[in-house]
Write a structure and sequence with these properties.
Bound molecules: iron/sulfur cluster
Largest sheet: 9 strands, mixed
Strand content: 15-25%
Number of helices: 7
Distance between the termini: 24 Å
Order of helices and strands: EEEHEHEEHEHHEHEH
Helix content: 25-40%
Shape: globular
Strand order of the largest sheet: 3-1-2-4-5-6-7-8-9
Length: 214
């Protein structure tokens, strides 16, 4: 059984997969408390759902791309089993993880989108740096959410220190919603010379920042 907040079909809003139709399985609970978190509603509640039932709901939604997200999708041990089942059934599986839980043991067929928390999140000390060693250059992505210039300078230093341009399929730079001027961030990125990708959260522009289940 897994604690599940919601299962729905929408448009992938972030990463290099943005814009693709996608089924989302949003698991309940997260051990982190990022100050700008946009999914606090996943911290509690949810329903206990069997993996069979989740698979049935995913199948009924009829989309080959499935993202397992949260909350923190790897915080529940059974999350790893669900991911394996989805891969076994031939789904293209994305995992959006906050970077605190180890990705060790994760099904190698799944594609990881790994957050690296910056200082303004308040959770930077909890990054599990060993996760960077498991990145696969052909498929995994890393994401920095930037709330201010200090976060951007931090992201730059981490990208260079860990050679993330070579180790990840993509390095995503995402503005913290409502906290940073988009033109400032775009200017810093454009002038950096780094092989990174600025991304906006597509779903928030389409449906608004407060709408759940989209
Ligand atoms: S890791 Fe994600 S879900 Fe957890 S507190 Fe941070 S932003 Fe929210």
């Amino acid at each position: 059984m897994l604690r599940v907040t919601e299962i729905f079909r929408s448009i992938q809003g972030e990463s290099t997969h943005a814009g693709r139709p996608c089924t989302f399985v949003r698991l309940t609970g997260c051990p982190m408390r990022c100050v700008w978190c946009d999914s606090e509603y996943t911290f509690t509640g949810g329903e206990h759902v069997s993996i069979e039932s989740i698979m049935g709901q995913v199948h009924a939604l009829g989309c080959n791309l499935v993202e397992v997200t949260g909350g923190e999708p790897l915080a529940q041990k059974q999350g790893f089993t669900l991911i394996e089942r989805l891969c076994d059934e031939g789904y293209e599986v994305l995992i959006e993880t906050g970077g605190y839980v180890s990705t060790e043991g994760l099904d190698a067929r799944a594609k990881v989108i790994l957050d690296i928390k910056c200082p303004a999140s308040g959770e930077e000390p909890r990054n599990d740096w060993s996760n960077l060693e498991r990145l696969r250059a052909g498929k995994d992505e890393v994401k920095f959410v930037i709330a201010d210039e200090n976060d951007w300078l931090y992201a730059k230093s981490v990208i260079e220190k860990y050679d993330l341009q070579a180790r990840a399929h993509a390095v995503l730079i995402s503005p913290a919603w409502g906290l940073i001027n988009l033109q400032d961030l775009a200017t810093w990125i454009a002038g950096s010379g780094l092989k990174v990708r600025m991304q906006l959260q597509l779903h928030k522009y389409i449906w608004g920042p407060e709408v759940k289940g989209v």
